[in-house]
Amino acid sequence: MSEKTFEDSKLQWQVLEQEPHRTVLSYYKKLISLRKTHPALKSPDRQNMKVSCDESTETLILYRWNEQKNIVSLMNFSEKEQEIMLPEFKESWTKIIHSADTEWHGNHDFPDDFTAGETITLRPESILVLEGH
Q: H or E stretch including 52?
């Protein structure tokens, strides 16, 4: 490995104070915090997990639950908007995080609350995490 390659591969801590790096770091911190604190995500128990994938739309739905909480992650890996129907096993869903929200320099804020069975349009290459009630 050349010295230039080594120098170019070093982490540049000073850029964390600049956009978009500051926002990306905040986003990852929020995801890590969610994983560590949300009851349905804290446990690595795969018995309380269900995944469904639609290759034609390039979407994935991940359900996680425990005795206290239910969570669903709706992921769109395609470059187009995709419609997804929210699960009906809970009466309502509340947004925890949406990667395309303006908070993360996206261009689409979802409302905070959704009705079970509602069809939503998920932004391209985005994830929406909801908690069931």
A: strand 49-54
Cis check for the bond before 44: say yes or no (omega within 30 of 0). Answer: no
Asked if 96 contacts 103 with a C-beta cutoff of 8 angstroms, the reply is no
pLDDT in tens, the chain (133 residues): 688 888 888 878 888 889 998 999 999 999 999 999 999 998 888 899 999 999 999 999 999 999 889 999 999 999 999 999 999 988 999 999 999 999 999 998 999 999 999 999 999 999 999 999 9
Spatial contact of 101 and 129, defined as CB atoms under 8 Å apart: no
Q: Confirm whether pTM is higher than 0.85.
A: yes
Instruction: Report the largest interatomic distance among the alpha carbons of the chain, rounded to a whole angstrom.
Output: 59
Cβ 132 vs Cβ 109: under 8 Å: no
